[in-house]
Amino acid sequence: MAIVSSGSAAPLGRRGRDASGAGVADPEDQQGRAGGASQRLVDAEAAPDEAAEVQPREDSLRPKRLADYIGQSELKQVLGIAVEATRARGEALDHVLLYGPPGLGKTTMALVLAEELGVRCRITSAPALERPRDIVGLLVNLQPGELLFIDEIHRLNRVAEEILYPAMEDFRLDLTVGKGTTARTRSLPVAPFTLVGATTRAGSLSSPLRDRFGLIQRLEFYDLPDLQAIVERAAGLLQLDLEREAALEVARRCRGTPRIANRLLRRVRDVAAVQGHGRIGAELVHQALSLHRVDARGLDASDRRLLTLLLEGYGGGPVGLETLAAGLGEDPTTLETVVEPYLLQLGFLQRTPRGRMVTPAGRAHLGWPAQLGLPGAAA
User: N vs C: which end of the chain shows fewer Cβ within 10 Å?
Assistant: First the structure.
């Protein structure tokens, strides 16, 4: 499988295959998507010796096959059946919409699907498709069966959506040539392809676009055993001697998100390298992550500031969002979309009609005495 990161498209040649019929993805990151104009085709077969010497990075920690993808068992089962049926019919996979919180593996799953199908995956994002020619250029250069991955697809503008509708349904482009009385419509055929859309806000997609996806799947937060397995796998790829208890400690602090787990593991690796530890234990993990102010439940400094302000300044609440934002010097949208979701997931924070409140569990976590008969506790 080859990975193409595209802003605006340009013709690309076909890739060779290995003995299994699938290409090999280069471990390098795709960088520099500035202005939607950069494009890069990564070919690991062209320089296998150089690729072998590259230190593993986050992209190289991604699984390449469904069998290696840890967690999301229901999603893997649904997509596995779809891939097998598609290969048996010799058709392009139906369009797939993946949604859920960031960091759960939507991009990784798109790359895995391309690898399973033995096709190329072209990667772009909705903000990069500002002009009609950007999306048209991508579509006309697609080869049969290829995957087009659009990240943050809910941010597509209306013109791009209108162009996608006939392309997704009938594999054609309806283009208007000329202006005024000389205007005429032309239809261009498009090779059968699979659009994989990823979004953190599925509700922001327009109904006509959402209804054109044949497979709509949500990615859930990972449970502790799956996260521990992900950390152990990443430690093996990074050539770290990590104890099982240490892997469990990282898994407890990563907020149910593999991306955060990999990030925390790299911070632990930094401390171990500087202090000269060959084997990483749970105590070293605690020391390293305490430096980054990540506690045993995964709360960071911003989370604790919010809870502490509620407790010290307002007796635990209820307090309005605007008041909290002013007290913390944060944007209300940042608090609502970045800080609050994990606290709500843990049950440390409660939203009520009168404002935000700290729950007894949140009080206990910060070492505050429980308060009985909390006012305004009704949902």
Answer: C
